Every structure is written in structure tokens, then in C-alpha cells.
User: Fold this.
Amino acid sequence: IRELAPLVRQSRARKILIDHHLEPESFADLALWDPTAAATAELVFQLIVALGDKALIDVPIAECLYSGLMTDTGSFRHPNTTGNVHRMAAELVDLNIDVSSIHRRIFDNVTIDKFRLLGYVLNEKLRVLPEYKFAYITLTDAELKQYRSKTGDTEGMVNYALAVEGVVMAAILIDRNDEIRISFRSIGNFSVRDLANKHFDGGGHRNASGGRSKLSLAETEQKLLAVLPEYQQLLLETV
Amino acid sequence: IRELAPLVRQSRARKILIDHHLEPESFADLALWDPTAAATAELVFQLIVALGDKALIDVPIAECLYSGLMTDTGSFRHPNTTGNVHRMAAELVDLNIDVSSIHRRIFDNVTIDKFRLLGYVLNEKLRVLPEYKFAYITLTDAELKQYRSKTGDTEGMVNYALAVEGVVMAAILIDRNDEIRISFRSIGNFSVRDLANKHFDGGGHRNASGGRSKLSLAETEQKLLAVLPEYQQLLLETV
Assistant:
């Protein structure tokens, strides 16, 4: 709960935690915590149903629950998409929410600056190393400024690297002035959490993790390329 | 059924049509036709269930049915995504198909050439006309050749234009040597079918249609820009 933590701790109200993340902070009087849930929205929905209040779910509530479920499952494509996820989506869709409009409002409000930056990256900055089944992107501070990049404009960019044919591990290295931030993605059993944890002060999930470096962007890139041989066999075995 | 038609007509076998498209060809002895179905795969699934054979659906069959359902609903985002679509997906997912792998095999095998072309287009060829809530892309034959474009490399590109903030209509104009092919997309009530039909010898769906022109690429672009004022009020009213 990050910067809200002091306020929450001070409050004398009863506190309820509903979460599906690993290792949530401990502050709550009641907890509904299930790391096997696809989304916190799934737990909220289960709670509403368990309380016997399903009939109170109106369109605005259904839109919020659907938005949480849909985004946390990557539009129903991540491995956390169980049959129950689809059954919950079915019940929400039956309430006449506009799924197409929700997707559009969440994903299709892209500024032209963001598309120009993405275009530049795909055309000039995406590097593929087939011998490691690895693809990556680097972005300097000057490049971000040139495209008037705002917070969030680089979000999801690493997924393009992961979508290159044959690639099983992808990274984006971004110069954030005080440090280099790295996002890693992988598929299957290859753990980018282990790599990020061992070499880049990072952590996260097996297939989606982050790291950081106090070296320059060029030095961080060299360091990453230098550790790849250690993982080459695992990478080549991953399909 | 296009080029298969002569063979199908010659055959003396019993012919069954299963389809959800408008106005299917007439050749079948039995027809299971429902244009309100999200996908032909949905009708196939319903038929299997109605025949009492649901228990025979194994993983390969479930993967095929899921693939048809998922692609025809745009990964469960198009307006055709009903509660029944999600219930069918739930039953297939329960059979232990790997949804993440299916998405990856269908969408994430992108060649680096295709990404370079997409990057070039987003960086240099995407034009936005806010006064018409319209965005479009043109591609010359030379540009396609420069990026070694193969069939399918431009597929879906028009959706990037539609994802620009504020845009309700998008088009891509591609020089295919013998003619200019145009793909139109729109959201909400604005009908690109009507525009394509009236001005570009086209048709299709309200929100996704195609057209063609025997003019040059530059002339076709000028013609399109010239017809926009006729639709300006409708476009500005669309949200």
C-alpha cells in the first residue's frame, strides 16, 4: 500500500485486505487473500456472491470488476485465465456491459507521440539475438525527450520484443536519469525473476520481472549481454 | 467457399453448411446457419453438445474451437462477445488447453521485417485529422518492397490508426499494383460499410469494411480526403 501506509496505520477503522499478490503487507483485521486468484477483482466478485449480494451488481460495478479481471489476465490470454475467470466474465457480460467500449477506453486512447515513439523503437531500436532467443530494446533519456515521452508511454513495449518469432526472453532498458530500469519478460519455464534477482537487484514473477542498475545505459546493456551465456542452454531449451 | 465451389458442387456427397457469416452460398443439403453467433466455432460447439458428444471433445478439438472463438471475437473484445461466448470458453479452458500458448502461436510469431515495417508506419506514415476524428495510413509498393513485406504483414495495421485517442474512423490504403486496396475501421454507430460502398466499390460490416480504387495511391488518398466533409457531422457525433 506504499505511500498510503502511514495513513492506513494511523486510522482506527477496521481494515480489510483483499488481494491476490504474493506477500501482501500486514495491516488488516480481516483478510481475503488468495494468490491463486487471477485478479483481486475475482476475489471481490467472490466476496459479493458469498455475501448473497450478487443482485446488487449494477452496470458500473460490473464494468469495474470486468476491467480488473480483463487487465489482470491480459484480455484472457495469460496462464491465469481459468474456466472460473471466463464464468465470471460471462456473468458480468450478461449484465449488458459494453466490453468493446471498455477495451477501447483502456487500450485505445493512445497519443500520437506514443505511437511515434513505438514506431521509432520497432523500426530502429529492437535488437534480436537468435543465438539466445533473446530480443531487447534500449531507450536513452534523449530519445524519450525527443518523443515527448510521458509516464506510461513505454509500458507494454517489452511485449513487442517478446512477440518476435522464436524469442523466449525479452527486455527493455530505460535510462531514468538516476538509474537504469529494466523490464524482463519470458515465456514458459524460463525465469526472468532469477536472472533479475541475481544480476540486476530485481524480482517479480517468473515470466515478468524488473531490475535496476546504477551503471550507464551502455554499460548496463553490456552487462546484460555478458550474463546471457550463463543462461544460453536454458534459453535454447525453452519453447 | 470460393475456389472450392466447383469441386463441392461436383461431389455427390451430402453437404452440410455451418456458418455465421451473412448471406452464405447455397450448396448444402443441411444448414446450421446463425449470423448472431460470434464465430462458426460457436456453432460447431453447439452442434457437438446438441448431438450429445461433448465428452468426445479432447484437447486438440478444444484448442481448435477455442482458436476460432478467440480470433473471431478479437480476444473477447468485440461487441459479439456474449455471455455464452465466455461460457463456451470456460468449458474449453476447463479441458486444460494452454490459452497462453495458443495466443502466442497465433499472434506472437512476428518477423522482424514485419515489426520494422510497422515501426516505420507508426513513426512516419500515420496521419491524424482531428477535425474528422479520422486517422489513416498509406503504403506504396516501394515501401512494401523496402521492408520485404509478405502477405499478412499489413494485417491489423489499420487497428493502430483506430487506437489513436479521439479517432472513430481509420483507414489503410495499400498499393497492390493492379489496384489500391483500402481497409476501413470505425467504432460505434458510424458505418464504414456505407462510405466504402458509396465511394470505393466496397462493402463488409458497419465497423470493418473494405474498398478498392483503380486510381493511383495519391489520387485515391485525395478522393478519400475529399469525401470526408460529407461525413464530418456524423464522425464528430460518434463517440
Chain B has two domains: 2-107, 112-237.
